[in-house]
Every structure is written in C-alpha cells, then in structure tokens.
C-alpha cells in the first residue's frame, strides 16, 4: 500500500521551514499594502527583491526536502505485512 505524498509526518518535519515562510509572506503582503515609511522606488525594489528571492529559495528548499524525505527508505513506514515479507 503506498503512502500519500506529504503525509502528516512529513508536514511536521517541514514545519520548521513553513512557519518562517508564512511569516515572510505575511510581512511582504503587509509592506506592499501598508508602508509606513513611504515608497522609495530604489529602496522598495531592493527590499522586495531580497524578500521575494528568500521566499522563493525557501519554498524550493522546502519542496526539495519533502521529496527527499518521501524518497528515503528509512522514513517509510510500510504496513506490518510488507515488513514480514522482507524477512
């Protein structure tokens, strides 16, 4: 029996990346809507470029880590019948 991709265990393992990702997305949205210091074209562009590149990189690393965890035989928890067949 195969496991669904990204089950609860993998999601818990990846929460260390998902929480900072959500925080960064929140602040990008907040500063895009409400910018208390005003909008300076150069500074705002650099600010958003840095934050968006970090979000994209962290998103890619999180996805890649999930695929590696799913593909690792040591993290698979097959049913007990499959383990008996191996022995």
Q: What would you say this structure looks like, in words?
A:
With 87 residues, the chain is mainly α. It has a domain at 40-74. Helices cover 74% and strands 0% of the residues. It is built from 3 helices and no strands. The protein has helices at 8-33, 41-71, 80-86. It is elongated, with a radius of gyration of 20 Å. The relative contact order is 0.16. The mean pLDDT is 80.
Taken in chain order, the helices and strands follow as HHH
- Helix content estimate: over 70%
The largest β sheet comes out as:
none
What's the average pLDDT?
Answer: 80
Low-confidence stretches: none
Q: Tell how many strands the DSSP assignment holds.
A: 0
Defining key terms:
single chain; 87 residues; mainly alpha; 74% helix
């Amino acid at each position: 029996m195969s496991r669904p991709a990204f089950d609860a265990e993998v999601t818990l393992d990846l929460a260390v990346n998902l929480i900072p990702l959500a925080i960064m997305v929140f602040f990008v949205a907040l500063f895009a809507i409400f910018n208390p210091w005003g909008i300076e074209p150069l500074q705002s562009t650099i600010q958003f470029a840095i934050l968006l590149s970090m979000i994209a990189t962290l998103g890619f690393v999180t996805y890649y880590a999930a695929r590696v965890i799913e593909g690792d035989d040591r993290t698979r928890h097959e049913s007990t019948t499959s383990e008996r067949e191996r022995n």
